[in-house]
Design goal:
This protein is mainly α and 213 residues long. The protein contains eight helices and no strands. The chain has helices at residues 3-27, 33-54, 59-62, 65-83, 89-113, 118-139, 153-168, 173-194. The chain is globular, with a radius of gyration of 18 Å. The N and C termini lie far apart (63 Å).
Length: 213
């Protein structure tokens, strides 16, 4: 991926996550500068953790464009909420899913550029994708989505595996990225629409003979 394309994806990703943070702040009736804090944390948190782990310079310090995108998205969302009809919860789910998918790709790409293997890159993609939302949910006193049975981190994992599969087949970079983003977004949005859940500890129903009288 070229530097310009990576930068464009990053600017787009922080904007989507800033919108999702602002929407949740509005839902939780956070007011004043608190909304900016929640939204900025959502937009910048995952990428900051990624860069610290990779020993890279923090992305939004190196390039103020990320901050400009974040604050512009926050202001735009606040104005939209003030002057437009009430938003459905699906808006939050969709913008959060797109931000998740883009940050997942950014984590994978940056780890690969850093010389990491694919398994580390997929893990770094998940870390980049989920940590901003994790911080947002904790500050808003929500049980983080990644800690519930929602298809969230698993959507990142599926997107990362899709990227790895296409990459191993020597598919052009752009299609590896598009495929990963589509899988992540469709799984995340589909899980909310159809109620898909990941329950690792679900027990089978006991047979009649096994039931305690």
């Amino acid at each position: 991926m070229t530097t310009e394309y990576f930068h464009f994806l990053g600017v787009l990703g922080v904007a989507f996550f800033a919108v999702s943070g602002t929407l949740l702040g509005h839902e939780k009736k956070i007011n004043g500068f608190g909304v900016v804090v929640v939204a900025a944390m959502t937009a910048l948190g995952g990428g900051t953790v990624r860069d610290v782990l990779l020993g890279e310079s923090i992305f939004w310090i190196s390039s103020p464009d990320y901050l400009l995108s974040t604050y512009s998205a926050i202001i735009g969302t606040i104005l939209f909420i003030r002057y437009m009809p009430p938003l459905s919860n699906y808006y939050f789910i969709f913008v959060d899913a797109v931000g998740l998918a883009i940050f997942n790709i950014m984590g994978i790409e940056k780890a690969l550029i850093n010389g990491s293997g694919m398994i580390v890159a997929i893990t770094m993609g998940m870390t980049t994708g989920i940590f901003g939302g994790l911080m947002r949910d904790v500050v808003c006193r929500e049980i983080p989505l990644v800690m519930q049975g929602d298809v969230y981190a698993s959507a990142c994992l599926a997107g990362g595996l899709t990227y790895a599969a296409l990459f191993s087949l020597d598919i052009p970079y752009v299609w590896c990225i598009v495929g990963s983003i589509l899988v992540t977004v469709l799984l995340r949005v589909g899980s909310e629409h159809w109620g898909w859940r990941v329950n690792l500890f679900k027990k089978r129903n006991a047979a009649p003979s096994e039931k305690v009288p």
